[in-house]
Amino acid sequence: MKTPIYMDYAAATPVDERVIEQMVDCLRSGYGNPASTAHQFGRDAGEMVDTARAQVAKLINAAPEEIIFTSGATEADNLALIGAARFRSQAGRHIVTSVAEHPAVLESCRYLETEGFSATYLTPDANGIIEPAAVQSALQSGTVLVSIMHVNNEIGVVQDIAAIGRICRDADILFHVDAAQSAGRLSIDVRSQSIDLLSLSGQKIYGPKGVGALFMNRQRVRRIEPLFHGGGQERGLRPGTVATHQVAGMGLACEIARARRVDDAQQIEELRKRLWRGLKKLPGVLLNGHPKQRVCHILSVSVTGVEGESLHYGLCELAVSAGSACATETDEPSLVLRSLGRSDQLARSTVRFSLGRQTSEAEIDFAIAQFSDVIARLRALAPVSEVQLA
Question: How far apart (Å, rounded) are the C-alpha atoms in residues 45 and 51?
Fold first, then answer.
């Protein structure tokens, strides 16, 4: 079997071959500027962008004009939080989020705090769940925005965004959702789930890197403050020439994801369950996050009695991660895992497996064998007591 085996789909997915072909065709024929509507070359490029906008919108039950293209979910998160908070600052200057959010959300909130906003950071329970009642209790008279991610990118836990959305809607507070990990894997309906702002990423759904989208509810979010200034592209909210080939690639990736979502989710969930059945037989291997309220493709486990750096070094035949791809260059233990009550040692001895369309049963079985072998070798070098394994 060719190694290393790729099991880091939560960080980035392989680009679908159909998407690659679409992007190459676009580079060859769609080279006009989509804003140059005075000639056919520009109009052709504009039609490609319009098609992609409709494809993205259909994935989440939105209208095409509610989709703003960005460079990725990180920019979409920044634009949603900072842009919406600034625009609504006259109504209040308080934000509610959680300590388990993506760094793009947490850092945006911290930046807003330097501008005079205040933020409440909710802590999830031991299973990683943010209870809707906790959101309700955190609301204040000056709360203008709530941001809770749909699926946690480190542990795969699914939040009840529909319930949180109803709470926000009843209080007339904007609700933002980072859906980078859930799009194409879980059903998303921005209408029935009462979502006002939603962030998407192309690279998480078998599309290209460097492109994402922000959904803005046209009835609830009339305007937000742009982060950049220049041309009037993307309703004046994201100036600069639209990268036609990347947008077209993301659009097709969303269309494919919509058609395959149910089958993909069932197949990948079975693989994740197979992986966990193999890993949980090992003493001292702990599941991170709710055992059932979780997305199909992410499995995070912490290992007692082994040193984290040695564990990850030993798993060189598996392309896995410790957690968020955005935090791999720091040796600080994961804030998400610490919020679940994991010690710093356990947080560092954590492995995130994330699976995808190309993952096979043979690769799962190989991963179980490799994981078992590495743990056995590390424990043989530094034997641990039964207490440490508990």
Answer: 10
So which residues are the catalytic ones?
326
Give the torsion sign (CA, 265, 203, 279, 340). Answer: negative
pLDDT in tens, 154-191: 999 999 999 999 999 999 999 999 999 999 999 999 99
**For residue 389, pLDDT beyond 70:** no
Domain with 336 in it: 5-12+261-389
Helix (H, G, I), strand (E, B) or coil at 374: helix
Q: Is the pLDDT of residue 16 over 60?
A: yes
Query: CB neighbours of 317 closer than 8 A, spacing ≥ 6?
Result: 3, 4, 5, 366, 370
CA distances to 15, 55, 79, 153 from 103, in Å = 24, 28, 14, 11
pLDDT at residue 338 is higher than 50 = yes
Backbone angles phi, psi at 145, to 5 degrees: -155, 140
Same domain, 209 and 297: no
- pLDDT of 217: 97
Report helix, strand and coil shares of the chain as percent, to nearest 5: 40, 15, 45
99 plus 231 within the same structural domain:
yes
CA distance 6 to 169: 41
Residues 26, 28, 33, 34, Cα dihedral to 10°: -30
**pTM assigned to the model:** 0.95
Q: Which residue has the tokens 């197979």?
A: 274
Whether residues 308 and 187 fall in one domain: no
